TrEMBL record:
Coiled-coil intervals, chain numbering: 710-740
InterPro entries with a match to the protein in the record: DNA_methylase_N6_adenine_CS, SAM-dependent_MTases_sf
Record protein name field: Uncharacterized protein
Region Disordered, residue ranges: 1-22, 52-71, 453-489
GO BP of this protein: methylation
Record bears the keyword Transmembrane: no
Composition skew (Basic and acidic residues), residue ranges: 460-469
Source species of the chain: Streptomyces cahuitamycinicus
Gene3D superfamilies reported for this sequence: Vaccinia Virus protein VP39 (3.40.50.150)
Transit peptide recorded as keyword: no
GO MF annotation, one: nucleic acid binding
Length: 755
């Protein structure tokens, strides 16, 4: 929603704007231009230059008489704003009404913002200013049409006690934007322009607002709910400033009249008062605001209406966005997921609830040791799943919150409990949004399309015939409990975040044909390798015996793999001699392994630091998955690098060293095979995290292959790595030759002549 100028108000409808004179420097700052630009405007559009016969250009306003000085003239702010309206901002995009932003628009916004900041300092806090201004807006919108007894208790008193400058500023804001509700949103920081107001006022109210992308998604999932016999009642828990509730109005908060019975619950007294004012500014004052969910069970005459007292304990739609940051109140009974339980309890038989939660509530798992604890968050999540209350989990796009950019969020779509076994739809909206270029309308439309019945099949059903119906890496249905051998279930004490769960073969890719093409390309590029690539016995796998997969978490718990965590080492202990260290730089190829080392005596200060063995796979799971095979051993891992050790590999190496067969038939996995399988696309897409995309190691999976097939894959990968190393040495030699010849010629010490 963009700001727009409206026709001048009728006499007496609003106070006349009054601003202090502005200097040339202030014009520059308020219009968002450079000082030379203002000087050029004044010189090129002076009365001596423009205004002649046939010249329709308006001259730059004259300085005020008796104000300022010749060296620092002062100008009337209103005259400057009107003159700047004639100049459109370069490259400005038209708003919904086709209006192009002008420097006058910028000037007025900045001038008003400066006035609001001054008022904030005079009144003592941003909350006092916002509360008084909202009281004025609410009374101007609808409050004056209500009888005094029906108004919120504090509204009339705050309206009458409002500072006169606050009253003037509130009326100017409504006059500029064109609607009381939109003016309230701008003051609260709920639109693009309002965010700048909130920042300058240093208001904390916007820190926990529901992002507009989430509001639009919930409104799209709810669908039309205005008028008619199918109108649904709504309860908004943790309503905040009413973002989700007012978002159901359709469009940019068009209002909630005709949307059935509405009630909001907000525990915070300040937010509760501001929410009442905001509802009145949208002429939705009939919606009640309570302080606790228990108030919904109390018999009362809602809205003081002349009807028999009744409660509002259940509704067709329940909304909630509890304001929790990472890890907050994880062990408390009334954590973020408590509101999800409360939402389910408030649902009518065919109702739906939409609850926004931080993603850490979906990724927490209980430990396996005797001292492990099941936190309230884990227990509540398992209870919701076990009772069949979770219909869908939508992982929201990263950095969707304008202020909590380091936090990730998910949307739970909940339904009433059921004794029948049900599946849960997992949707990775972050992956969809990245593919759509972040365009809100595009990714929201695709997510809503995936939630329609029949688009994503139930577990065990065949996919839709159209290949482009959906991508299994975007959405899948997963059973809460297993319904067949080898099938995945959500109640397995692992993360239920869609990014950690969704893994599927690459769609629309014929691996057999792609492999044949790659093999032909190698034979053409490296003719001497034709025999080697031709001897590879590659064929299509029998589709009647599909491959099964096992999570690394299962393999780690079974002892088949051992996880080595990286350690943090002080910079002063890193040198050029000792044991090689492997950190992020080595994994990314920015430094060769061995360029950084740590002396054994310095390593003694870190008893928990891990040293690798021959055959360990080094892993960096940030912004994708990168793996290296340690072919020597003896490296120290630096965080965030991790290591995976195949526990049976050490005995295999020892047996081979002694001249034995190596028990190849018993070795379930080998290092190079493990490294390559971990880097497969099905594992690369499991990342989560808003600022740094990290892949959950325990949620990666590996195919269960016969030891003979693993041995064949290992042989191919080892030979390919040897050939790659040989080619790298050749390239390095050629690069060195070209570098020395050109350097010698440049310094005048080499002479070249054709043989």
């Amino acid at each position: 929603m963009s700001w727009k100028r409206t026709a001048a108000p009728e006499p007496g409808s609003a106070p006349v704007p009054s601003h202090a004179p502005v200097s040339l420097g202030e014009i520059k700052e308020l219009a968002g231009v450079g000082r030379p630009t203002v000087s050029n405007w004044r010189r090129r559009f002076s009365r001596e230059v423009v205004g002649g016969p046939g010249d329709s250009r308006l001259p730059f306003p004259d300085p005020l008489t008796g104000a300022g000085s010749e060296s620092k003239p002062l100008f009337d702010a209103a005259e400057i704003a009107d003159w700047l309206d004639l100049r459109t901002v370069p490259d400005a995009e038209p708003d919904e009404g086709g209006h192009l932003e002008t420097y006058g628009d910028r000037f007025r916004r900045a001038l008003r913002l400066r006035g609001l900041v001054a008022l904030k300092h005079r009144l003592g806090s941003a909350e006092t200013l916002i509360s008084q201004a909202l009281a004025v807006i609410a009374m101007s919108a609808e409050g004056k049409h209500w009888i005094t007894e029906a108004l919120p208790a504090e509204l009339l008193a705050e309206y009458e006690a409002a500072d006169p400058d606050v009253v003037r500023a509130a009326h100017e804001l409504m006059d500029e934007i064109g609607a009381p509700g939109w003016a309230a949103d701008a003051l609260l920081g709920l639109d693009d322009e309002g965010l700048e107001i909130a920042r300058r006022l240093e208001s904390d109210l916007v820190m926990d607002i529901t992002p507009r992308g989430v509001v639009a998604l919930v409104a799209a999932l709810i669908g039309p709910n205005e008028g008619g016999p199918d109108q649904r009642s709504t309860i908004s828990l943790c309503a905040g400033l009413g973002e989700l509730l007012l978002g159901m109005g359709g469009g940019p908060y068009e209002g909630l009249r005709g949307h059935g019975e509405l009630v909001a619950v907000e525990p915070d007294p300040l937010l509760r008062k501001l929410l009442r004012y905001r509802l009145l500014s949208y002429e939705a004052g009939a919606a009640d605001v309570c302080s606790s969910p228990s108030d919904l069970d109390t018999l009362r005459a809602w809205n003081q209406a002349p009807v028999e007292p009744h409660d509002f304990s259940t509704a067709d739609l329940v909304l909630a966005d509890p304001p929790y940051v990472s890890g907050e109140r994880e062990r408390d009974a009334e954590g973020p997921l408590w509101w999800a339980l409360e939402a389910v309890r408030r649902l009518r038989p065919e109702g739906r609830a939409y609850v926004v939660v931080p993603t850490w509530t979906l990724t927490r798992t209980s430990g396996t040791g005797p001292t492990s604890m099941r936190t309230a968050t884990i227990s509540t999540r398992d209870s919701l799943l076990d009772r069949g209350c979770v219909e869908a989990i939508v992982q929201l796009p990263r950095r969707i919150h304008p202020f909590r950019t380091g936090a990730e969020f998910a949307l739970l779509v909940l339904r009433p409990p059921s004794s029948e076994p049900r599946s849960v739809l997992l949707v990775d909206a972050d992956r969809i949004a990245q593919r759509a270029g972040g365009k809100a309308g595009t990714w929201i439309e695709q997510v809503v399309g995936l939630t329609r019945p029949g688009v994503v099949p139930e577990p065990g059903e065949e996919r839709p015939k159209r290949d482009d119906a959906y991508d299994p890496q975007d959405a899948q249905r997963v059973n809460v409990r297993t319904s067949g051998p080898g099938r995945e279930q959500l109640l397995d004490n692992r993360s239920v975040l869609p990014a950690h769960r969704l893994a599927a073969p690459e769609t629309r890719v014929d691996h057999f044909e792609e492999t044949l093409t790659a093999r032909r390309a190698v034979a053409v590029a490296l003719p001497r390798l034709r025999d080697w690539v031709g001897d590879m016995n590659i064929s299509r796998r029998d589709t009647h015996t599909p491959i099964r997969y096992r999570k690394l978490d299962v393999l780690l718990k079974a002892g088949q793999l051992k996880l080595l965590n990286g350690h943090r080492v002080k910079t002063e202990h890193i040198g050029e001699a000792g044991l090689p260290v492997v950190g992020r730089e080595e994994m990314l190829g920015e430094l060769p392994v061995g360029a950084r080392c740590i002396a054994p005596e310095d390593l003694a200060a870190y008893p928990s630091a891990k040293v690798t063995d021959l055959g360990d796979v080094l892993l960096l799971a940030e912004h994708g998955v990168r793996c290296l095979v340690d072919t020597v051993g003896g490296c120290v891992l630096l965080s965030p690098v991790q290591g995976l050790r195949i526990t049976a590999y050490r005995e295999h190496v020892r047996d081979v060293t002694r001249g034995g067969p190596g028990h190849s038939t018993e070795l379930w996995m080998r290092p190079h095979s493990l490294a390559r399988l971990l880097q497969a696309p099905r594992n690369q897409h499991r990342g989560s995290g808003s600022l740094v995309r990290r892949v959950s190691v325990r949620d990666m999976d590996l195919p269960q292959l016969a030891p003979e097939e693993i041995a064949e894959l290992e042989a191919i990968l080892i030979e390919a790595e040897r050939l790659r190393a040989e080619v790298r040495r050749q390239l390095e030699a050629l690069d060195r030759l070209a570098e020395r010849v050109s350097a010698g010629v440049a310094d005048g010490e080499l002479a070249l002549r054709r043989q």
